[in-house]
Amino acid sequence: MGKRDPRVDAYIAKAADFARPILTHVRTLIHAAVPDIEETIKWGAPHFDYKGVLCGMAAFKQHCNVILWKASVIIGKGGNAAGGPLRDLTKLSDLPSDKVLTDWFRQAAKLNEQGVKVPRQAKPRKPVSVPAALKKALTTNKKAAAAFESFPPSHKREYAEWIADAKGEDTRQRRIETAVQWISEGKSRNWKYERK
């Protein structure tokens, strides 16, 4: 038998008037479709687990979303994307039919039982554009230049954006001097906040 979480009751009770019927209806359908479902709160919103995360739902000021974890396999590419059938819900009639939703929840449960993983789609990132002033400063410090070259793109991007975002030339210069020092020590831009 499934497990209900009182935190989900509280979440629904705090939701906007338009959202409560949507969230309550989706919750009821999930429990009917997958009797062994377990409720929890993840990322501040109700989620439903069955041999892994099955789906979640969230209420915002003007709409609700249902997040079907394996939507791309079950529904297709537009499943959880903006404009998809489970996004921007403002009334019960915005939802697909009960039969369709129940079928999707059952398919998701079956995929979880089978251990099917949905491949993550890597977002293409633009190449790092290093400001000319930082490039020039790195040429004067071989240790910093070597360290910077060995950094992953995320660390390079952090430094590049930090320097590029400087409003004044004096601020930019101070940041470059600090960056070269930290880079020569092998430190990322946000080294102070890294777990040790």
Describe this structure as you would to a colleague:
The chain is of the alpha+beta class and 196 residues long. The chain has 2 domains: 6-113, Aspartate Aminotransferase, domain 1; 132-193, no CATH class. It contains 8 helices and 4 strands, in the order H-H-E-E-E-E-H-H-H-H-H-H. It has helices at residues 6-14, 19-33, 71-74, 98-113, 132-139, 142-150, 153-164, 169-184, and strands at 38-42, 45-49, 53-59, 64-68. It has a 4-stranded antiparallel beta sheet with strand order 1-2-3-4. The longest helix has 16 residues, at 98-113.
Distance between the termini: 42 Å
Looking at the overall shape, the CATH architecture of the largest domain is: Alpha-Beta Complex
Taken in chain order, the helices and strands follow as HHEEEEHHHHHH
Describe the main β-sheet briefly: 4 strands, antiparallel
Q: CATH topology of the largest domain, which one?
A: Aspartate Aminotransferase, domain 1
The CATH C-level class name of the largest domain: Alpha Beta
**Mean pLDDT over the full residue set:** 89
Summed up, the domain count is: 2
Brief characterization of the structure:
This protein is an alpha+beta fold and 196 residues long.
